[in-house]
Amino acid sequence: MIEDITAIAAWAGLALFVGGAIWDLIAAIGMNRLPDFLSRLHAATIGVIGGAFYPLIGISLILLGTDIMGEYRYIAAGSAALTAFLILLLAPAGSHALARAARRRGLYRKDILVTDQQERGETE
Amino acid sequence: MSGVRKVASAVALLAIVAALSLGAAAGGMGPFFDGIRSLGAFYLSTAPPQIAELVLGPSYRGLSSYSPEVVTSIVWDYRGLDTYFETAVFFLAIIGAVAIYRGIEEPVLRRPASGLSPIVRAVTKFLIPINIAVAASIALHGHLTPGGGFQAGAALAVAPIIVIVVFSRRYLLERGVTKLKALFFRSAGLIGIALVVLIPVIWSVISGEWAWVMQNQWKPGAEAFSYPAYLGGALISGSIWFLNLFEFLAVSFGFTILFLLISIDEDTVRSCMIRGGEECDRY
């Protein structure tokens, strides 16, 4: 029973890890191909959340699901999970600040803008 | 740049990279050494106290710095004077910045700055305590784990620059982080370092026994003086813990001074520097 759970955790972690590489590739293509700052920022955040947050969770799961590294795997798994949590907090805040600054200075293409939620109420 | 030139420069770059890697692989950076060199083996076997005493024998205790973290013991014990003068260089850099900005500190802001949006501010408020805790642990565990005073100071200095960017300079000043206080704590750190370095000499003058500048544990030829390796049962590695703590103070507040100074409005600084006199006396 417990072996099944650890094996599932390890395989899920591996899937997240491989998925992270695919997200990173998509983000890199988006950074190159997308037309303006805001859409490129979208690609960048895909790279951060998909290419850094998920792989770190994956590393944590792999370490918990296998017995590589012996006792140290708990420390490494905890560090990876904590780093993932911090990235989850920091990346949206940073991209939000960038997007806000870009919108204030008009550094985006208005002709391809779909919607502007801040247009109605100019509060924050 | 034309196509031919682009291709030519790319080929040249690739050729340089290939030549360098080939040279390195063929042993151009010195012969490859499989294993630990004798100097490294000496550091590794003498820095941790248990190994020095158990493996090499009690007579090697005098060569140990009583720090299991070999890098920190090299930085603050084996080549301690080098680090001492590195700190002096950093001290001079800060003094230079303070001298350039003399007379234009603490300008009165006309209106309170609101800072970035509530989302960024909330995340920052959550992260600043984490930052301070991590920096303190890097400094106070510097003799046990990788890190040390300078790294911890640089880590803590992230806090003021983030607060300046996300909130405002005024936010920091209103919470008591002023240039004068930062200068005080930085000077306290530097005086602490100088004291830790010179205490063996002062002790030597008083007691008449032999002791070296910046001595940590007793050394062959200067057996009488030794900083305590343990304090209340906890390993503090003699002077290394104190040096890390004071370097942490000096570096973090040194960076804080720099960030406070470079966040002053550029026009204010320029008009002060060019015109001087009454323009700057206001501040």
CA(first)-CA(last) distance of chain A? 52 Å
Mean pLDDT score of chain A: 89
The stretches of 5 or more residues of chain B where confidence is low (pLDDT under 50) are none
Shape annotation of chain A: elongated
**Major sheet summary line of chain B:** 2 strands, antiparallel
The mean pLDDT of chain B is: 85
How much of the residues of chain A is beta strand, in percent? under 5%
Indicate how many domains the architecture of chain A comprises. Answer: 1
As a whole number of angstroms, the C-alpha radius of gyration of chain A is 19 Å
- What about the largest sheet of chain A? none
Number of helices of chain B: 13
Structural class designation of chain B: mainly alpha
Total number of β-strand segments of chain A?
0
Number of strands of chain B: 2
Order of helices and strands of chain B: HHHHHHHHHHEEHHH
Structural domain tally of chain B: 1
- Considering residues with a beta carbon less than 8 A from a beta carbon on another chain, report the largest interface and each chain's count: A-B, 10 and 11 residues
Given the helix and strand composition of chain A, which structural class is it?
mainly alpha
Q: What assembly state would you assign to the polypeptide chains in this entry?
A: heterodimer
What is the approximate shape of chain B? globular
Topology order of chain A in helix (H) and strand (E) letters: HHH
Task: Please describe what this structure looks like.
The complex is a heterodimer of chains A (124) and B (283). Chain A has helices spanning 2-33, 37-65, 72-105. Chain A is mainly α and 124 residues long. Chain A has one domain. The radius of gyration of chain A is 19 Å and the shape is elongated. The N and C termini of chain A lie far apart (52 Å). The mean pLDDT of chain A is 89. Helix content of chain B is 64%, strand content 1%. Chain B has helices spanning 3-25, 38-46, 49-54, 70-78, 80-100, 118-140, 149-156, 158-166, 169-174, 179-207, 239-262, 266-275, 278-281; strands spanning 230-231, 234-235. In chain B, helix 4 crosses helix 11 (239-262), helix 5 runs parallel beside helix 11 (239-262) and helix 6 packs antiparallel against helix 8 (158-166). With 283 residues, chain B is an all-alpha fold. In chain B, strand 1 and strand 2 (234-235) form a beta hairpin. Chain B has one domain. Classes of the chains: A mainly alpha (124), B mainly alpha (283). At the A-B interface, helix 3 of A face helix 6 of B.
